[in-house]
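TICKET: design request
STATUS: open
ATTACHED STRUCTURE:
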């Protein structure tokens, strides 16, 4: 006679096998948690919407199987956003995968999860008539909070100055860092940060027409 507890273990095991055999497909752009392989384990991961590097890479944050806010998830949160190869994705996350995680085995995440950090950037653009012009790219930032801080500082500096032409505007926004265009970025950590941002704001105001500097977006 199988006890109720044993039956629950058997049912959980069968659900795990079914999830591994027929995972629910992942669709690009979804915000639902994913199941990704990390070594021999399967972990829960949250995608960053719109942040992809072609069809092969997507930015994700690894999460504790009980969810991102569990007190036991500190080992996951310390890794931040990571560049995850789509070939390691099994599909959408389901609790059936939980027994396969490091947390379920009482283990910490390994020091190397074979995913590079998903870095960030700030883009300064001039908007007039026609396509927006990119005047400056700052990056890579290792923390999204650093990029957001500098974008806010640039926005404040630009607000202190007159627009270059009537009806024009300059914006500073955070964007994913594109490693394939690394030569087009200015290192935000390499110089005096405040001076760099003030020079960027001045450069933006000096851009009188879309052809003065920068390149069209796209």
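STATUS: resolved
RESOLUTION: sequence designed for all positions
ATTACHED SEQUENCE:
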């Amino acid at each position: 006679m199988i006890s109720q507890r044993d039956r629950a273990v058997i049912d959980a095991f069968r659900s795990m096998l079914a999830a591994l055999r027929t995972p629910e497909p992942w669709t690009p752009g979804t915000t639902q948690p994913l199941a990704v392989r990390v070594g021999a384990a399967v972990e829960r991961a949250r995608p960053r919407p719109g942040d992809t590097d072609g069809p092969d890479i997507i930015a994700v944050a690894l999460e504790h199987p009980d969810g991102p806010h569990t007190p036991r998830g500190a080992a996951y949160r310390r890794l931040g956003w990571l560049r995850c190869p789509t070939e390691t994705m099994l599909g959408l996350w389901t609790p059936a995968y939980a027994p396969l995680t490091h947390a379920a085995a009482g283990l910490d995440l390994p020091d190397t999860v074979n995913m590079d950090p998903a870095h960030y950037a700030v883009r300064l653009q001039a908007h007039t008539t026609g396509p927006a012009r990119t005047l400056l790219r700052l990056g890579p930032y290792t923390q999204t909070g650093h990029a957001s801080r500098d974008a806010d500082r640039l926005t404040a500096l630009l607000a202190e100055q007159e627009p270059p032409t009537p009806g024009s505007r300059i914006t500073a926004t955070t964007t994913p860092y594109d490693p394939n265009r690394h030569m087009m970025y200015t290192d935000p950590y390499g110089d005096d940060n405040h001076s760099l941002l003030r020079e960027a704001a001045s450069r933006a105001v000096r851009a009188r027409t879309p052809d003065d500097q920068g390149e069209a977006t796209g």
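CLOSING REMARK: The longest strand covers residues 41-53. The chain is about 25% helix and 30% strand.
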